[in-house]
Amino acid sequence: MEAWVYKRLKSAGAVLVAKLVSGSLAYDDVWFGGRTRNPWNIEEFSTGSSAGPAASTSAGMVPFAIGSETAGSITYPAARCGVTALRPTFGTVGRTGVMSISESLDKLGPFCRSAVDCAVVVDIVRGRDPDDPSSKDSSIDDPFLIDISKLTVGYLDDAEMEVVHVLESKGVKMVPFKLNYTVDSVQGILNFTMDVDMLAHFDQWQRSGEDNVYEAQDQWPTELRRARLITAVDYIQAQRARRRLIKEIKESFTVDAFIGNATDWEKVCIGNLVGLPVIVVPTGFTNISDPPSGGSKRRTTITTGIYAPPNRDHIALALAMAYQAVTNHHKQRPPINDLGPNDKIPDSSIDAYPPRVFGP
């Protein structure tokens, strides 16, 4: 089966160069062949689950790639590998042909060099997928036509202030901002939703006991069994709390967009539960904490997130494009060959997992 998103790209003239690895069961960066690494620091892992798309785009192996997110699988690897990536509004891109974990959380989005590229790619892949009931004809406006001087943008306490100052210099009204909501345990709501939805997808596999011999993150058998203990009442209560969270977050959006840490777990949970779009933007680099002897060009990337209300992806894209028009962090290239004579890439720690079993 050809994925819907691939059909859209192919119809626009895109050429499939490679199929990139995801973390096993779309979680983290461990897969059956090893573990994906960060091109900016080869001794560091890329995080996941969209590990291959982030690392390959960062390394310059492809101009863009498509990844997926249930909870952080676009934002985390994009931030670690220093690329620009868009997690669009839920339902923007059809998911037919893509392995699903949670019907109410999963999203597809592009990893690119720049926000301009993200705008081009998402414009191609967005739209109604006839076989995905959650997809919709998105009303995303043209981000290239947005007058950012008419926007009011908030910034959270953890926002990168350099981004705030740059956008302010471009005429954007910048104001302090805080998300207001009363729902307790946002992470608990996400975990309940994701675990139960995932168990529904892998129910037969888990009942068969084959999850015990699966060469992947060894928490999955426990995770799936724990999900089976969640009662219908608890799940429904979690969904009620989720609906209240969606209402409160939408009501607290007194700005056109806001800036904050793209990998803060609370915001990752809120963004995915509510369906907020966010674009991850590289904003700088720092030296690694323990560089190899003899010097190194390896770096730790710094990023920020530009968030917008649902179906206002074009606002986040326009602000990211404005920031990148006067900065060059997104144009930097990682030292992918920076491996000294005394360096050793550490074991990927998958040796502890049992070997894969094929057949009876």
From TrEMBL:
Alphabetical list of InterPro entries matching this protein: Amidase, Amidase_dom, AS_sf
Disordered, as annotated region: 330-360
GO molecular-function terms, A-Z: glutaminyl-tRNA synthase (glutamine-hydrolyzing) activity
Record SUPFAM superfamilies: Amidase signature (AS) enzymes
Record-linked Pfam families: Amidase
Top-level taxon of origin: Eukaryota
Domain (Amidase) ranges: 3-254
Name the UniProt record assigns to this protein: Amidase domain-containing protein
